[in-house]
Design goal:
phage-related protein like fold; six-stranded mixed beta sheet
Length: 299
């Protein structure tokens, strides 16, 4: 009798784990961290205003009032952007037995929801205004482009230092508010974590951990600033592959306005497959363009 072995044994069962690992990155800090509001039209508008300049104010008894020049409110706006992610699964694929999930259609719906949030986050950070036509989709203004004419600095090839960062904080403080969240690429997050703030780090000799990370930064002009490593602040195609942008916000002045919150829906059947999509319509509220800064091109 020939020796039994595994090489030609068709009775062997496959050894396939019933799990699926997906390391594709997700980025939703703006989408999940900012406040929300509601819009009623595809053009979403709000108002900003200013106070008169401070001056010596001293009156003689009994004289008539004087009237400083009044400013009219300025109207700001953004447009809603429709974000959609479709998915389609053949009915045969739904009928066969799979590893990692029971229903491929439900599995793809969950993936599409995550992909929708990534695309929405990208638009919130980097979107450019397009008002839309019958042949052009509407596109919202993102955080960076809202600040392109206010508190924006082109710092091409300038190495970020603690002094420079604090100067950015003061620019926003001078305008009347404070940064409380900083969005930076991971390279800049590591660089900021190496700042000493004029102090010396002391560690317990018995503690075997070496900690080199900062998640909260305090400065004279900005208290309790949360630091976030964000994937879409700088992407390929920016100034260069070795220079990075920094965005600081007073998050209370930035909100996400939903015309339609994201939802899943099944589409009409046109063949031997099941189709669906995730749909949502939203825009970014920038209640004041000076409520933050954008520095471009640091190294």
């Amino acid at each position: 009798m020939a020796q039994a072995n595994t090489f030609d044994d068709v009775s062997r069962r496959e050894d396939l784990l019933d799990i699926i690992t997906n390391l594709s990155p997700r980025e939703t800090q703006l989408l999940s961290g900012l406040g929300t509001s509601t819009c009623k039209d595809v053009v979403h508008q709000w108002l900003t205003d200013t106070l008169k300049s401070v001056a010596v104010n001293s009156y003689i008894e009994g004289v008539d009032a004087t009237f400083p020049d009044r400013t009219n409110p300025e109207r700001l706006y953004n447009v809603t952007q429709i974000v959609r992610v479709g998915y389609e699964v053949t009915d045969t694929e739904r009928a066969v037995q799979n590893a990692g999930f029971n229903d491929r259609y439900a599995y793809e719906a969950q993936k599409a929801l995550k992909e929708w949030s990534n695309d929405a986050e990208y638009a919130l950070m980097r979107g450019s205004l397009a008002c839309g036509t019958s042949s052009t989709a509407r596109s919202m203004i993102g955080v960076k482009n809202f600040m392109a004419s206010n508190n924006y600095t082109l710092a091409s090839t300038v190495s970020l230092t603690e002094t420079i960062l604090n100067n950015y904080f003061q620019d926003v403080w001078d305008d009347g508010t404070q940064v409380n969240a900083l969005y930076v690429p991971m390279y800049m997050k590591r660089k900021i974590s190496a700042f000493t703030a004029g102090t010396t780090k002391n560690t317990n000799q018995e503690d075997k951990r070496l900690v080199n990370a900062i998640d909260i930064y305090e400065a004279d002009a900005a208290q309790m600033v949360k630091l976030f490593a964000h994937r879409y602040v700088t992407v390929a195609g920016d100034i260069s592959g070795t220079s990075y942008d920094i965005v600081g916000l007073d998050e209370s002045k930035w909100r996400i306005a939903y015309l339609r919150k994201p939802f899943t829906r099944e589409l009409s059947k046109t063949g031997d497959a099941t189709k669906g999509e995730v749909v949502g319509e939203l825009t970014l509220e920038c209640l004041h363009k000076n409520a933050g800064f954008w520095a471009s091109g640091h190294v």
